[in-house]
Amino acid sequence: MDTKVHDVVVRRLMDEGKLMAAGWYLYRTRIMPRDAGLTQIEETRKAFYAGAQHVFASICGGFDQSAEPTEADVVRMERLHDELQSFVAEMTPTKGRG
Fold first, then answer.
1. How far apart are CA 72 and CA 78, in angstroms?
2. Over its length of 98 residues, how does the chain's per-residue pLDDT go in tens digits?
3. Between vectors from CA 86 to CA 37 and to CA 66, what angle results, nearest 5°?
4. Pair 7, 52 in one domain
5. How far apart are CA 40 and CA 62, in angstroms?
6. Residue 98 is assigned to a structural domain of this protein
7. Does 42 lie in the same domain as 14?
8. N or C: which end of the chain has fewer CB within 10 A?
């Protein structure tokens, strides 16, 4: 998906309060096995939302208490971004790999 289109879609989902639901839908339909059992689906959904809640709460509580983001806040977000990008790279199959 084009980056600009992606950003527009993400903003709309955020405005509608449906960002996590959309992310879960994509994960469920594109990542999980089609024949996943109900227990696996339910437990994976819990882990998906619990991980998001952990990151969101940590970000909200971990920023410096000022009106504007501080340099330390920016570094924290960059490190979180790097950590998540490492996970994406780990989970993304490379060409020639089954």
1. 10
2. 678 888 888 889 988 989 899 999 999 998 999 999 999 999 999 999 999 999 999 988 888 888 888 899 889 889 998 998 998 888 887 755 44
3. 105
4. no
5. 32
6. no
7. no
8. C
